[in-house]
């Protein structure tokens, strides 16, 4: 009996293991671990909160919950792009923090086996690099796998607070 | 099942305590109170017996017995303070047992010692009471005690015995008997009748049919009047009316105990109080939360529906009518859901009565608790978190603050110390203030102790009074040499800080040596509901708490005075106020940059005032305050925002923190003055 339950648990984990939600930013395709994703919604009216870093666009109301949203483009210091009806907000939940990520468009959920995931190359001066956990290969295409934790845990907090003091 | 039992019992015990303490204060147990205590104990007995907690049920049974006796016999000589002690002790015992059950333990404690005590008290009471009714049939005797009846009892000299027989086929004899009783009730003082259970027993009809309906009553009417009254009875076959010389026959009836029915007036009261209690139900909080979220969603979807693009530009009279009705219902629903979570502080404040009473008794001090504003409504979560800290603060006040009677007399103070517990809303915050007129905090003692413990981080001279007082919140800090039952270990105040901190509140202490201490707890309004004025700046909406708003007006750009530092001021009725342009402060784009295009709102907090320029007023609305997400809080966002709220259309509005706006502005003004 207990064995059965364990099997089931493993099975549940298995269904989420190695699965990634992929989305586009410009021409690059990114992947995000499916276990963090709570839902995907269309673009919403965002309430601006004054004097936040530019990549935090503000807050939205998702069924009574107030959720901050971050423009991933700006977070990666890419050029801002006009929002369209393809623009999506991916709501992710990490260690009890809900946050929305604004991306150009959401593509699909894919499985990338572990052997196809590589460590990111060590390019110490590359600022974008620090958000990437690994590089997944599917056939010829390459998906950049995001480290969600780094995305929201902000080493910027200190510098920001200095800036506005 | 367990949860319900525990919840109910706790509620009942709380009620019980309130009644007991109220009665003790007024030194009188009204018959209503006695009934209520009896009922509470009866309920506890029943439910605990059902859950098979024999110690609780046995104890509550004996308390029930005690009050049963008091209720029926109404003895005049009751030692109330002893009675109060007994009941409170019993309540404490049951509470402790319930606590054990809650923690999953066993209730093996023996309640016999308490039961013995109660029985001894009861025996004593019985012996002392001169009441005739204390014989075995005592509690069962019934008599009608209408007010009129009681008045007449004094001169009701004549005792009558009436036997009524109804016609053979009239049916429902018992009901007719009730009618007879109702009829003579107005004329007679004491009424006894047989068979007695005419109210609810159909068998009694049979007995009346065979033996007739016997009534014994006392009245000062003469026999003819009585005969007239009784003759009016419908379907009456025969009536025999005798005047009795002595009460013997009545006594006989009393003693045989066959007469048994409660006074009908009392019954009505009981029914009423029962139905009041049943109006409350307990609901799981998480269900309420999801209900609130769902209503929020409903509001949004409603506005999406009625503003649907497919409907635009069409003639939709019937639809609009229906939609209006729909919106009305949803608005009402929203209001109700918002109010469900709010609980008044009165129950929490009531609990403190007990604390003060116990502390006063144990410490041998005369302490009075005065509560002000206990009907202030606070979110349920906050009420739960506030109770423990309050208890600590009040115990501290009772133990360390209030002096002994001799000391007070010596100091020319009133013998009875007063602790005032006050709740009020201030600027959207809820303030809970505990004030005592005791000896106050000893600044030097605290300083010395802090020095000894190596807590001083700053030079002594630069410490403000508040900073010194705040040492008492540190764990393990106590200036008290000896540890008493109530306080002195130094764990109390840091628990206070922790618990209040958990709900985002703050605690402040002020004290004047010899005159007393004031502890102010400020609770933020997470989820508290407040009235806000919604204003628009550019495309954003902001909410200003109504309590902060003084007035709003329109002025011309020329009225603005600019000082050399670029601060803008405005002269209103001879007073000069700083002006804050909200669009500038928050960096919002708006077309209405000139003062004449917008509206100026004058706001105040703690006697400080300033003017805020906004684009337009949208309207007043009750809003639920939500905290900004943790993630956002991590950033140092612009000063002056204390939270956000959802407007009825689902959009978010930021709530202005007027006190912070004022402070940031006053800081600037200060520098301006110095310059």
Please characterize this protein's 3D structure.
The complex is a heterodimer of chains A (165) and B (675). Helices cover 19% and strands 42% of the residues of chain A. Chain A is built from four helices and eleven strands; from the N terminus they run αβββββαββββββαα. A six-stranded mixed β-sheet of chain A has the order 8-1-2-11-10-9, with no helix packed on it. In chain A, strands 3-6-7-5-4 form a five-stranded mixed β-sheet. Chain A starts with a helix and ends with a helix. The N terminus and C terminus of chain A are likely disordered. Chain B folds into five domains: 133 residues, Four Helix Bundle (Hemerythrin (Met), subunit A) (Up-down Bundle); 135 residues, Histidine kinase CheA-like, P2 response regulator-binding domain (Alpha-Beta Plaits); 56 residues; 180 residues, Heat Shock Protein 90; 146 residues, CheA-289, Domain 4 (OB fold (Dihydrolipoamide Acetyltransferase, E2P), Beta Barrel), CATH 2.40.50.180. Classes of the chains: A alpha+beta (165), B alpha+beta (675). At the A-B interface, strand 4, strand 5, strand 7 and helix 4 of A face helix 12, helix 21, strand 21 and strand 22 of B.
